[in-house]
Amino acid sequence: MVQMQPKLGDKAHNIEIVEKAIGSTDAKVLIFPEMFLTGYTLRDRVQDMAEDMNGHSVKRLDELSKENGRWIIVGMPEKDDEKTGIIYNSALLVGPDTEPVTYRKMVLANFGPFEENLYFARGDELQIFETPVGKMGITICFDIFFPEIAKLYALAGVDIVVCLSASPSVTKEYFEKIIMARAIENTTFVALVNLIGTEKNMTFWGGNQLIGPRGNVKAGGKAFVEGLVTAEIDLTELEVARQFRPTIRETRFEILESLADFADDEGAEEE
Question: How far apart are CA 51 and CA 26, in angstroms?
Fold first, then answer.
């Protein structure tokens, strides 16, 4: 979990940070925060900075993955491959034996200092990635506040819910609490990988953490201090956690169905 400050609008510099991180650890999976490739506060520059899967930066990250035998997850603005001009706030995953693939942020932040609806479209598909340390489900920042997303990942067999985020210092307490809740209620590992440093009027606190499936902190970085936060995943902890608190086994699927019915009714009323 890489806790290093990207340079706003400088993809080449930020890819250099990726290269240095690869050289600084033997970790099999390296995770970088939300919008790390470009920095978060791009605003009107996002259209020019976004890339599709044929973009130069995507290809370079894919090369680094394959050259070094590492899995890399990086937040980035993603252009739609259909050349429609649509941009997503995405998490790119590249691996030694896979093609580049993305998860697109599903719940955009539009309150306080956040104006993501002005620049991004909403994603609508969960993504599960097979990695050397287990099955990962990706979320991006505000996504993690919606328990249905993490729940669906857990029901689909995910071992680790990863949250790439651009959480400013004023939201530090919320994120520290919510990632523990998501881990306990779903008996999964939860990894928070957050931006650090200052961009324009926003200060990000870092504080990367890996939370175990019983809510215990497995590894954590200091707030406002750059560095790498390294942790080992022991998947047998999932079995123990699920014996003590079987939230997956006892899930009431009829409640989920009622939630879907409610959503359908609300959609029909809007039409």
Answer: 28
Tell me how far apart the alpha carbons of residues 217 and 60 are, in angstroms, rounded to a whole number: 33
DSSP conformation class of 43: G
With a CB cutoff of 8 Å and minimum separation 6, the contacts of 113 are: 168, 201, 202
252 phi, psi to nearest 5 deg: -90, 100
Say whether pLDDT at 269 is over 70.
no
Q: Provide φ and ψ at 249, rounded to 5°.
A: -60, -35
Segments making up each domain of the chain, as ranges: 2-270
The CA distance from 236 to 185, in Å, is 18
**pLDDT tens-place string over residues 177-214:** 999 999 999 999 999 999 999 998 899 999 999 999 99
Q: How far apart are CA 100 and CA 29, in angstroms?
A: 15
166 touches 192 (CB < 8 A):
no
Q: Which residues does 262 contact at the CB level (< 8 Å), separation at least 6? A: none
Apex 94 CA angle, 213 and 123, nearest 5: 70
- Amino acid 99 reads E
Cα–Cα dist 161/181, whole Å? 12
Q: Please give the CATH number for the structural domain made up of 2-270.
A: 3.60.110.10
